[in-house]
Target: Acyltransferase family protein
Amino acid sequence: MTNSLYPHGSRRTPLPPAAVTSLQDTAAPSPASAPAAATPPATGQASARAGAGKPGQRDAFFDNAKYLAIVFVAMGHCWEPLTDGSRSAEALYMFVYTFHMPAFIIISGYFSRSFDMRPDRLRRLITGVAVPYILFEIAYTLFKRTAGGDPDHPFSLLDPWFLTWFLVALFVWRLTTPLWKIIRWPVPVALAVAVLASVSPDIGDDLDLQRVLQFLPFFVLGLFMKPEHFQLVRRREVRILSVPIVAAALVLAYWAAPRMTSAWFYHRDSAQELGAPWWAGVVMTLALLGCSLVLTACFFAWVPRRKMWFTVLGAGTLYGYLLHGFLAKGSRFWGWFDADWVHEPYGQIAVTVIAAAVVTVLCTPPVQRIFRFAMEPKMEWAFKKDATQLARARNRP
Model:
């Protein structure tokens, strides 16, 4: 049907307004990056509190959760050299590794719900995930060759080193998002994939596919979570119930510390590669998934809902994640943990505080501005102009 005032299409229908996008960290995009139509409906207070608010407005809860999760990541890395001589450090290490990355990945999935194969989103995936992966893989390789005293350490984009596995995983998970949206039972299928991966030693180390597949259920779960699910775990009774659950988890971790290897929590090896029978992969995958979901819910229950002094740092968590890796590995290369005082209780507390402070600084806006060229490059020169944007520019008065 044509407009009666302008028959035969002599005047074009105005193009829709350009979508306003805001700066986001690739580990967990801000609510502003998702169009309102792609956000699950919520009503009243739940909508205002769970990230379904006005476009361009960040939700303090998710920024707080991302910041606290990255602090736990940094503390876990500083505890790793202490685990050999301290049962308490090993217990805390296993406890934190049960939920810190699952929490991060669930949030990543939650804010990937609107991802499709639209050109602008593919460009953001390349500039915000693929390019940082390449740059940091090069930087980590050079760092290990120089500071690590391994001049023959090979450079390979197929073999992520240390922290860069998460960028590979995020790239793969986001690309498969449209697939999970069309199948009937996405979470059970993702869980089946994780279980099969845990008993498949032939997968190998390329692209850290074991981690990609074994952590997959958390991302898919996040894809199908709604604001009311986060409201549910933030209820007062859940916070109260989480206290004895966390206490019991710490006791269980202290008991398990000398009896099992913490390698199960990395999800980077099959059961056979860990010296266990194949069926142990099935049992451990399901058991760890359950433990991770429970402790992640406890973590979310205690994340502040209001704006805090560290809320602004939630937008820079990927900066802190990747940059603190140089210090985490450098501390081993340079023998910082060889000092006896570090292994004393007061030394372990001091190291923990230092790790939290360092990663906090690395998430700050000044650090983001310095390293934005590597983490969020625009790279407009590398992409073709979008036809819609060109048409909009021509019609702009």
